[in-house]
């Protein structure tokens, strides 16, 4: 346990001992209160699993941002679409009456096929807080590669089920370095506005922000940023801000204000299930098969593609293997999912004509996390809304944009917590490991030092100004930085390299990439608005010219 976690000077009537005694109760809450929830329905009436032997015009792999945009626009153009999703439908409540479990009480619904949680914030006062859970096809996948753990959403809605909903359009001056081959005028005039509108993006009411308890942590973050001369910017989000006001007032069931985020949000967040996917289903032309995992795509003898799909149960075991044909296939399995499929299919002979750019250009969006220990007279609040609403922008001068993130533990922690996005130059590649029969990623944990240095341009200055220090107890014992993960995998099938400038895979007519794997490793801000806007751009061109 670190000795440096509490900056108490004893001057405001809160002793270190009392503080520690108080935090003992959250540890109890955080570590001991797991409930195991009984099984979920594996599929629902709203979904109809694909039949083996089916022939479909379009098959979309994955139901995240890219896949959902493709499905909606193709359906609106009159095309029947089959969406294949390895995760669950997430439309049926468990025995507690809720679809999703809370961040403070992870149960079987929380993690994808793990027997122990792998929480991004793994320790409190240096004490590990991960706990055993039953193995289940839960919502958050913490996928381990040699140098990094990549967090991803699993289920109908992909990352939109688990993310913070921060919906950020990059500054226009940064766009040329994000997607160099894409016309910025078109993106900023047409596709970013279209994406923002369809995603339901909104910004917190600043007057409400200034007074409400659940954003005290963000006001402290703003004060510290501004006192050190950094701009604090409000960050738009897809959370329903009117709902947040009501839950905060206690007139509707609590969701963000009760800490729901990482393992799903039961009420206020506009995930893709409520936006693009709802619209896609309403066309009557889109069918979704949850708990179905695509394992192979190869040219079919009579034209189109043979797609092999494993139907799985909630233990992750294959129950049926199905073979279907599709005239066109869209890879929307996310940066990691799409890259792994394409790398394996190229190496094992199913799609040998894919070019040598497959698997390259992967980045972590420069993610690093840290916490700061505030003085005892600068509390961040017991109740913290789980939805971030602001960030500190030092991109131009220091290469870092830091979300002021909540730490919704239910007790006063005196901590400020941040997820930084940094301008890291490092890029990794996926490759086929034949001996181990799996895809590897050659990311090196040491590369995170560049990101840490960039994040320090913000937090060293704030600590110096405030007379505070870093928390050293949140990610291990005496460990300041979480340098082992990313929430923002990007790249692996980069636009205009592995594909043409609209996501058509080189080497195969009728195969497309439509997700975050098109973006070469960094978006300078949180990525899903850019993924959505790029998918809107690409599918419009594909519908106009290919169908
Ligand atoms: P994604 O949403 O990952 O969807 C891919 C889908 O494909 C998933 O549902 C997979 O289960 C499915 N799949 C994969 N392989 C297969 C297969 N073989 N067969 C069938 N299905 C398959 O891809 N971004 C922001 O902009 N703002 C935030 O506030 C934010 N917070 C985040 C917080 C967390 C904890 C995490 C994990 C991510 C966060 N992100 C955030 C990142 C964001 O969710 C991510 O960039 C997008 O979800 C990526 O969209 P894609 O369409 O590329």
Give an overview in words:
Pfam families: GMC_oxred_C, GMC_oxred_C_1st. One of its GO terms (molecular function) is cholesterol oxidase activity. Its EC number is 1.1.3.6, 5.3.3.1. It comes from Streptomyces beijiangensis. This protein has twelve helices and 20 strands. It is an alpha/beta fold and 547 residues long. The strands form five sheets. Strands 1, 2, 8, 9, 10, 11 and 20 form a seven-stranded mixed β-sheet that branches. Strands 7-13-14-15-12-18 form a six-stranded antiparallel β-sheet. Strands 5-6-19 form a three-stranded mixed β-sheet, with no helix packed on it. A hairpin with a 2-residue loop joins strand 3 (123-124) and strand 4 (127-128). Helix 2 (65-76) packs parallel to helix 8 (276-282) and helix 2 runs parallel beside helix 12. The termini are far apart. The model is unreliable at 1-46 (pLDDT under 50).
Give the distinct bound molecules: flavin-N7 protonated-adenine dinucleotide
Helical content (DSSP H or I, runs of 4+): 25-40%
Total number of strands: 20
- Main β sheet profile: 7 strands, mixed
Low-pLDDT sequence parts: 1-46
CATH uppermost class = Alpha Beta
Structural class: alpha/beta
CATH H-tier superfamily: FAD/NAD(P)-binding domain
Gap between N and C termini, in Å?
61 Å
Mean pLDDT: 92
What is the C-alpha radius of gyration, as a whole number of Å? 23 Å
The CATH architecture would be 3-Layer(bba) Sandwich
- What spatial form do the alpha-carbon principal axes imply? globular
Pfam families: GMC_oxred_C (PF05199), GMC_oxred_C_1st (PF22500)
Family: Belongs to the GMC oxidoreductase family.
EC number: 1.1.3.6, 5.3.3.1
Organism: Streptomyces beijiangensis
């Amino acid at each position: 346990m670190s000795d440096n976690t509490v900056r108490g000077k004893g001057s405001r009537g809160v002793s270190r001992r009392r503080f520690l005694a108080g935090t003992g109760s959250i540890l109890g809450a955080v570590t001991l209160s797991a409930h195991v929830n009984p099984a979920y329905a594996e599929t629902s009436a709203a979904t109809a699993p694909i039949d083996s032997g089916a022939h479909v015009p379009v098959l979309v792999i994955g139901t995240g941002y890219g896949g959902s945009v493709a499905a909606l626009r193709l359906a609106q153009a009159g095309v029947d679409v089959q969406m294949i999703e390895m995760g669950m439908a997430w439309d049926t409540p468990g025995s507690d009456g809720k679809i999703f479990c809370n961040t403070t009480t992870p149960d079987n619904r929380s993690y994808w096929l793990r027997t122990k949680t792998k929480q991004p914030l793994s320790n409190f006062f240096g004490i590990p807080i991960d706990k055993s859970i039953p193995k289940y096809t839960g919502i958050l996948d913490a996928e381990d590669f040699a140098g990094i753990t990549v967090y991803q959403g699993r289920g109908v809605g992909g990352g939109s089920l688990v993310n913070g909903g921060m919906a950020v359009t990059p500054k226009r001056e940064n766009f040329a370095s994000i997607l160099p081959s894409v016309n910025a005028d078109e993106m900023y005039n047409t596709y970013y506005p279209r994406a923002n509108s369809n995603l339901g993006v909104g910004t917190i009411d600043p007057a409400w922000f200034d007074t409400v308890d659940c954003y005290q942590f963000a006001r402290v973050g703003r004060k510290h940023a501004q006192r050190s001369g950094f701009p604090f910017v409000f960050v738009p989000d897809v959370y329903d801000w009117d709902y947040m006001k009501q839950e905060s007032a206690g007139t509707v069931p609590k969701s963000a204000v009760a800490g729901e985020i990482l393992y799903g949000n039961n009420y206020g967040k506009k995930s893709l299930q409520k936006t693009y996917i709802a619209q896609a289903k309403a066309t009557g032309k889109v069918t979704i098969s949850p708990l179905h995992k695509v394992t192979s795509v190869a040219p079919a003898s009579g034209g189109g593609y043979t797609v092999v799909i494993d139907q799985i149960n909630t233990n992750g075991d294959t129950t049926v293997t199905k073979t279907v044909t599709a005239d066109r296939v869209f890879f929307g399995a996310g940066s990691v999912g799409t890259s792994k499929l394409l790398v394996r299919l190229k190496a094992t002979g199913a799609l040998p004509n894919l070019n040598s750019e497959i698997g390259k250009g992967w980045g972590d969006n420069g993610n690093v996390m840290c916490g700061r220990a505030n003085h005892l007279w600068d509390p961040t609040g017991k109740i913290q809304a789980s939805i971030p609403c602001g960030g500190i922008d030092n991109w131009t001068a220091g290469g870092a944009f830091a979300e002021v993130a909540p730490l919704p533990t239910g007790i006063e922690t005196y901590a400020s917590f941040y997820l930084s996005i940094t301008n890291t130059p490092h890029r990794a590649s996926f490759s086929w490991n034949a001996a181990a029969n799996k895809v590897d990623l050659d990311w090196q944990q040491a590369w995170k030092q560049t990101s840490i240095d960039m994040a320090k341009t913000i937090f060293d200055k704030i600590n110096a100004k405030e007379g505070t220090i870093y928390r050293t107890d949140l990610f291990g014992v005496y460990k300041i930085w979480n340098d082992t993960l990313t929430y923002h995998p990007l790249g692996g099938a980069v636009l205009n390299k592995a594909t043409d400038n609209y996501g058509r895979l080189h080497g195969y007519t009728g195969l497309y990439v439509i997700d975050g794997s098109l973006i070469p490793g960094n978006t300078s801000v949180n990525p899903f608005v850019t993924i959505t806007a790029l998918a809107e751009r690409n599918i419009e061109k594909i519908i106009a010219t290919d169908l």
